[in-house]
Amino acid sequence: MSDAILSAHNLVKHFNAGGWGAARKVVRAVDDVSFDVAPGETLGVVGESGCGKSTTARLLTHLLPSDRGEVRFRGRVAGTEVPLKEFRRHVQMVFQDSYASLNPRMTMLDAVAFGPTVHGVDQPEARRRAGALLERVGLDPARFGPRYPHEISGGQRQRVNIARALAFDPDVIVLDEAVSALDKSVEAQVLNLLTELRRERGLTYIFISHDLNVVRHISDRVMVMYLGEVVEIGPTADLYTAPRHPYTEALLAAMPSLDPDRRTMEAPLQGDPPNPIDPPPGCRFHTRCARAFGPCPGTAPVPALVGRRHLASCHLNTVKEAAE
Amino acid sequence: MAVAQTDIETLATADKPRGYWSGVGRRFLKDKVAVAAGCVAGGLILMAIFAPWVAPQDPFDGTMIRRLSPIGTEGYPLGADELGRDMLSRLIYGARLSLFMGVTPVLIAFVIGSAIGIAAGYAGGWVNSITMRVLDVFYAFPSVLLAIAISGALGAGILNGLLSLTVVFIPPIARVAESVTTAVRKLEYIEAARASGASAFTIVRAHVLGNVLGPIFVYATSLISVSMILAAGLSFLGLGVSPPNPEWGLMLNTLRNAIYVQPWLAALPGVMIFLTSISFNMLSDGLRSAMDIKQ
Ligand SMILES: Nc1ncnc2c1ncn2[C@@H]1O[C@H](COP(=O)(O)OP(=O)(O)OP(=O)(O)O)[C@@H](O)[C@H]1O
Ligand code: SF4
Ligand SMILES: [Mg+2]
C-alpha cells in the first residue's frame, strides 16, 4: 500500500550461530517479513518467545542492519531515500527493560533532553521541552527531573522512556514489550497514557507483546509471527473472532480468558517451537499443527487474502482438498 | 499550570545534582581500610610535594665519617647511607621521583589505553579484533621483561624509563577499557541513544565515557604500585633514574652491599615502596567497591 506510513519489504535477518564454511549455522530470526502500517493505526505483534518480534522491531528502527529487504517510511527507503538521522526522528522505540534502556549516570530530565539536542535544539530549550514532556507523561518535572534511573519505580521509568521517544515528535513509535515488565495496575495506567498520547498526537504504534489480551485492547490490526515468519495479519476483531491460521487459533486457545465459558477444551500448543536454526521444511508450523494435511510438510504456504486487509499463510485457506 | 511552568524554567537552568558521586563518596567514607589507605597515600604525596620543608637535611650532602650510621643516630633518625647522606631526607626526597615514576606512566597510559580500548570496544567487529590482537602481542611478554627490554634499548634516563613503562601499561589498560566498553555497548540505553540518531562520537561522549571511565580508572590506579615497583626495578638495574638522585629503587640498589652491615637501613627504601604500593592498591580497591552502583 502506498499510503502506509511505515512498511517492511521482505526483511531478512539471520544470526550466526557458530560454525564455519559449509558447517556454518544460522538462526533464521526474521525470514522474509513484509507488512505495512497505516498512519494513526496501532499494529499489534504477537508470537511465542524467540519468534523474531524484537529482531523485527530492531530491523524496523534500523538499529540492526537487515541482511535483505528494506524499510520504507512514507514510501521512501530508510537509510537511502530518507537519511537515517531524519528517519530516527520520525520512528522511535521504547524497550522492554525500562532500567537497562536508561543511562544509569544520567538524570531523567537529561535523558529526555538528549534527543532534541542531537537534532539541533539548544540545551536550555531541550531541557524546557523535556520538563514539559515529563509533565505530560504524569511525572512532576521538579521532583523527577533530577532523579537517576535507580531512584524511581519501573512504571515511572517507562513513562520517562515514553517521554524520551516523544521528545523527537515522532510519527511512529515501536513499543517492544513496553508494558510487559510492569505490574498489572501500572500496566493499565501506562496503556491508558499510550492511548491518550496516540489520540492527542496522531501517533502510529507498533505494539509488540506476548499478552494477547493487551494486544487486543490496544491494536487496530494484529500480526502473528511464528519462527521468523508472519503467519497471519488482519484487523483485530476479525483475527480474534475468526482466526484463519491454526497457529493463531492455538495462541488464542492458550490465552487466559476472563470469561470461563470461552475457554476451549482443545489442547493448545504442545511443547516448544522448533529450533529456528533448522526450521521444519514446508509449513514451519506443521510439526505442531493439529490440522496438518497433505501439502503441509512439503510445500510452504504463501500469504493469501482471506478477508478485508486480512492475510494468512496456511494451505487450509487455499488448497481445495482441505475443505472437507 | 503557571506553577508548573516556573518549575520547568528553573529546572532548565538549575545545576545537575551529584546524586551518583555523592553516593560513591558516602560509601567510600564508610570503608575504614580504604580511608586509612587514602590518608597514607595522601600523606606520601604531600610529603613529596613539600620535601624541602619536611626533610631535616640536604639529601645530597654526605660525609664519609657518617657512612652507614645506624638507625637512631643523633641528628640522623634513620641513619645515613653508603655516602653518609641523611637517610630520612633521602627517603622523603625519594618520594618525589618514585611517585612521579609510579603515577606518570599510568596516567599517560590511562589516556592512551582508554582511547584505544573504548574506540575498539565501541566499534566492535573486525576493528576490535585486529586492535586487540595487536595489543595481545605486547601483552604476551611479562611486564618486567618488556619494561627492561624497551628501557634497555632506549638507554638509561628518566624520560626513557617513563616511556618504557607507559608502553608497558597501555595494553592492559586498553584491554580493560575494551571489555568494559563492549559490555556497555550492548546495553539498551546505548541502543536507545543510537535510536536518537546521534553520531558514534556523541554517543561515546554522552553515554559511554561516564559509564566506563570509572572502572578503567580504578583499574589504572591498581597499576600505580606495579609501575612504582617496575620503576624501582629499572633504577635498580641502572636504567631509569641515575645517581645521585634520590629514588627508592636506586637507593635499594646502592645500599645492597650494606645489607650485611646494616640490614635494617638497607631495607628502608623497600619499606617505602611496599607502603606506597599497598596504600595505592587498597585505595583503588575501596574506590572500586564504592563505585559499585548495586550496593
Ligand atoms: N544478536 C543475536 N545473535 C544471535 N541470535 C540472536 C540475536 N538476537 C536474537 N537472536 C535469536 O533470534 C531469534 C529471535 O529473537 P528475538 O529476540 O527477535 O525473539 P522475540 O520474539 O523478541 O522473543 P522474546 O519474546 O523472548 O523477546 C531467537 O532465536 C534468538 O535467539
Ligand atoms: S499449512 Fe498446514 S501445517 Fe501449516 S498451519 Fe496450515 S494446516 Fe497447519
Ligand atoms: Mg523480544
Explained architecture:
The complex is a heterodimer of chains A (324) and B (295). Chain A is 30% helix and 22% strand. By secondary structure, chain A is of the alpha/beta class. Chain A has a domain at 6-95 and 172-256 and 272-279: Rossmann fold. In chain A, the strands form two sheets. Chain A has an eight-stranded mixed β-sheet, sandwiched between helices. Chain A has a four-stranded antiparallel β-sheet with strand order 2-1-4-5. In chain A, helix 4 crosses helix 6 and helix 6 runs parallel beside helix 7 (184-201). Chain A is globular. The relative contact order of chain A is 0.13. Chain B has 295 residues and is an all-alpha fold. Chain B has one domain (24-57, 82-291): MetI-like (MetI-like fold), CATH 1.10.3720. Helices cover 74% and strands 0% of the residues of chain B. Chain B is built from twelve helices and no strands. The longest helix of chain B is centred in the middle third of the chain and has 37 residues, at 87-123. Classes of the chains: A alpha/beta (324), B mainly alpha (295). The interface between A and B is large, with 45 and 30 residues.
In whole angstroms, how far apart are the ends of chain A? 34 Å
* SS content category of chain A: alpha/beta
| CATH superfamily placement of chain B | MetI-like
Bound molecules: adenosine-5'-triphosphate, iron/sulfur cluster, magnesium ion
Described by strand count, sense and barrel closure, the largest sheet of chain A is: 8 strands, mixed
CATH architecture term of chain B: Orthogonal Bundle
The tally of helices of chain A reads 10
What would you say about this model in short?
By secondary structure, chain A is α/β, with parallel strands linked by helices. Chain A has helices spanning 53-60, 84-90, 108-118, 123-136, 141-144, 154-166, 184-201, 212-218, 236-241, 246-254; strands at 6-16, 26-37, 42-46, 68-73, 76-77, 91-94, 172-176, 204-208, 221-226, 229-235, 304-307, 310-312. Chain A has a domain at 6-95 and 172-256 and 272-279: Rossmann fold (3-Layer(aba) Sandwich), CATH 3.40.50.
